[in-house]
Amino acid sequence: MNDTNPLDGRDPACIEGVAQAMSDVIRVMRAHKAVRGSGVAGLDPAAAALLIAIDGRQIRISDLAHMLSTDVSTISRQVSGLADAGLVDKLPDPSDRRVAIIELTDAGRRTGEDLRRVHLGWFADLFADWSEADIEQFQAYLRRLVRAVSCELGARASTPAQ
Fold first, then answer.
1. Which end of the chain is less congested by CB atoms within 10 angstroms, N or C?
2. Among candidates 120, 114, 125, which has minimal Cα distance to 42?
3. For the sheet containing 96-104, what is the strand order?
4. Lowest-pLDDT choice from 33-37, 49-53, 77-81, 139-143
5. So what's the pLDDT on residue 161?
6. Are 100 and 91 in contact (CB under 8 A)?
7. Is the Cβ–Cβ distance between 79 and 50 less than 8 Å?
8. pLDDT band, residue 9 (cuts 50/70/90)
9. Which of 13-17, 42-46, 127-131 has the highest mean pLDDT?
10. How many CB atoms lie within 10 A of CB 148?
11. What residue ranges do the domains of the chain occupy?
12. 87 and 51 in contact (C-beta within 8 Å)?
């Protein structure tokens, strides 16, 4: 990132417009989550995010925390709640018995399928009047944004504090 000239010749109004649009997206998505929750009865949004992230794999809590950009203690508490609800199993890691490997139970897989169905339906409704080309382009831009933010976060994480 260029800290000496952040606009790098770009129109400030254009950049401000994008910043405002992103703030608006974040705000309405948070409002949606607050009003609708996960979309699956009895499952909070944080638990839903974990089920989606775990789906189809065996994963360490530390790797899950890294994937979701949060701390291990938070993920550990959430995973314990999912285990208590019968949605995940904690298995000993064969290479380090002190570490747990997490995987979905059959009930966790069914709940994950319910989540995917609800989310796909919601997004299908949101994009009902968009062409497939528009949706594909939007997805490409979102993925590009995620890469840019991830790279910027990585650069800041590896740069010593001043």
1. C
2. 114
3. 59-60, 96-104, 88-93
4. 33-37
5. 47
6. yes
7. yes
8. confident
9. 127-131
10. 11
11. 13-126, 129-162
12. yes
Model confidence at 12: pLDDT above 90: no
Which CATH code for domain 13-126?
A: 1.10.10.10
Question: Which tokens sit at 36?
Answer: 């609708």
Q: How far apart are CA 43 and CA 46, in angstroms?
A: 8
Taking the C-alpha atoms of residue 112 and residue 57, their distance in angstroms, rounded to an integer, is 13
Question: Which amino acid type is present at position 150?
Answer: S
C-alpha separations of 35 from 56, 68, 115 in Å: 29, 22, 16
Alpha-carbon distance values, 18 to 66, 106, 153 (Å):
28, 42, 19
Quick check: 121 and 109 in contact, CB under 8 A? no
